Amino acid sequence: MPATISGINVYPVKSCRGIATDRVDVTPQGLAVRGVRDREWLIVDTQGKFVTQREQPRLALVGVEARAGDITLRIPDHAPLTPKADGDVRDVTVWRARLRGHDAGDEAASALSSYLGTDVRLVRFDDTRPRQVNPDYAGTSKATTLYADGYPVLVISQASLDDLNGRLAQRGVAKLPMDRFRPNIVVGGLDAYDEDHLESITIGEVVLKLVKPCTRCEVTTTDQQTARRSHEPLHTLSTYRRDDRLAGVTFGMNAIVAGGAGASLALGDRANAKFRF
Questions:
Q1: Residue 68, φ and ψ in degrees, nearest 5
Q2: What gap in Å lies between CA 49 and CA 63, rounded to an integer?
Q3: Which stretches of the chain are DSSP H helices?
Q4: pTM above 0.85?
Q5: What pLDDT digit, counting tens, does each position of 105-128 carry?
Q6: Is 18 left (phi over 0), alpha (psi -120 to 50) or beta?
Q7: Cα–Cα distance list, 41 to 1, 10, 219, 249 (Å)
Q8: From CA 262, how far away is CA 277, in angstroms rounded?
Q9: Cα dihedral sign for 208, 211, 213, 217?
Q10: Is residue 101 a contact partner of residue 90, using CB atoms and an 8 Å limit?
Q11: Are 156 and 188 contacting, i.e. CB atoms less than 8 angstroms apart?
C-alpha cells in the first residue's frame, strides 16, 4: 500500500483551534491555507512571552477562520472579530527565540484577555526578522519557521496513533483523536512509528526533511473539543516512547521544507518516503 497524505491541518494562531483542509500551499516557513500561514499569529502576555495551551487550555476552544490572508477569531461568547494585521511592532519571545510581531489591536486583545482572565495581546509575525530553525538539527539548510515551537511542519503516521490507541485500550482508556497531537501532515500507508526513521517525504514537487523527534507536553492531554485535561496519553507514551536524549516522550517528527516552496499539497497525494537506512 503506497503512503499517502491522509490529513492536513494548519494552525494560523498558535495553540488555537486548527483548520483541517483538503489542500494547502507550501511556503518556506511551512503550510498556508487561503493566504494564512501556519502559526503566523501568536498570543503573548504583557511581557511579550508566548501564551499557549500549556498555561491556557481553553485556547483549544478559540476557532480560527482564514480567508484572503486575514483571519477571523471565534472566541466563545464573543462576536466574531477580524484582528488588525499591521499594527505597531513589539518584541515577543517563543522559548529562547527573540522575535517581533505586529500588534493586532485593542479589540482582539480585549476579547482574548476577557476570555482567558488575564491580560494578553495578539501579534502577527514580522517577516523583516526571519526566524531560523535550530541548525543542530536542520544543518546548513537555513530553514525558517514562524511562531511554531521550533520547526515549521509536524508529521505523524496514522498507524502510530492506531498503535497508541491499541495500547490505551489495553488500559481501559478510550481512543484519542489525532487532534490531540496537532500535526500538520498525517501520512497513511506507513507502519507505526516509521516516521522516526524517515530522512524525507516527497509529495510531488514538495520535499519535507524530517529532522527531529517531537517531544510532547501537556497539550496532548487536553481534549481539543472541551479543553478538559487528563493524564493520557503522556502516561502511556512514557512507558515506551521515552527519549532520554531529549528528556521527554516523543510522538511524531518535526520537519523542514527542503524543496517545493510555492507548490501545493492535497489529501490523497502520494508520499514517497525515504528511510535513513
A1: 50, 40
A2: 22
A3: 106-116, 135-138, 158-170, 234-237
A4: yes
A5: 999 999 999 999 999 999 999 999
A6: beta
A7: 38, 12, 18, 27
A8: 30
A9: negative
A10: yes
A11: no
